[in-house]
């Protein structure tokens, strides 16, 4: 008998940059899955919601800022033990507000050279590889 198919979860993330070319990364809450790991901000797409709308909603909920979402930069599937992630990353910038720790433990503006100083979940690794030029 074959195992039941894994649940597929659609997730969106923002590659938010500032005028210095740094990326905004956020730290997961201590009680979240993969606690205290760093990631590109975003989250799950709700039923009936588009990717861009979900990303704007998630960033507002987590950081209390409004973003402008640009082009999709990456799509990848990541398999975990009990589920799979259909991961979509988008370029973005802050249109209004200053980031606050609302739904995240912490946040930082970092250069691509600094990504190695932080622990990221596997779903973010393809984005990091692309941004630092390892995806060739």
Features:
four-stranded mixed β-sheet; globular; 136 residues; 17% helix; Nucleoside Triphosphate Pyrophosphohydrolase; alpha+beta
Q: Flag low-confidence runs.
A: none
CATH domain fold name: Nucleoside Triphosphate Pyrophosphohydrolase
- Indicate the CATH architecture: Alpha-Beta Complex
Order of helices and strands: EEEEHEEEH
Strand element count: 7
* Tally of domains: 1
What does the main sheet amount to?
4 strands, mixed
Strand portion: 35-45%
- The overall average pLDDT, rounded, is 93
Proportion of residues in helical segments: 10-25%
Count of helical regions: 2
Shape: globular
**Backbone CA Rg:** 15 Å
In CATH's first tier, which class applies? Alpha Beta
Strand order of the largest sheet: 4-1-6-5
Structural class: alpha+beta
Name of the CATH homologous superfamily: Nucleoside Triphosphate Pyrophosphohydrolase
Straight-line distance between termini: 40 Å
Write up what this structure looks like.
17% of the residues lie in helices and 39% in strands. The protein is α+β, with helices and mostly antiparallel strands and 136 residues long. The longest helix has 13 residues, at 51-63. It starts with 6 loop residues before the first strand and ends in a 5-residue tail after the last helix.
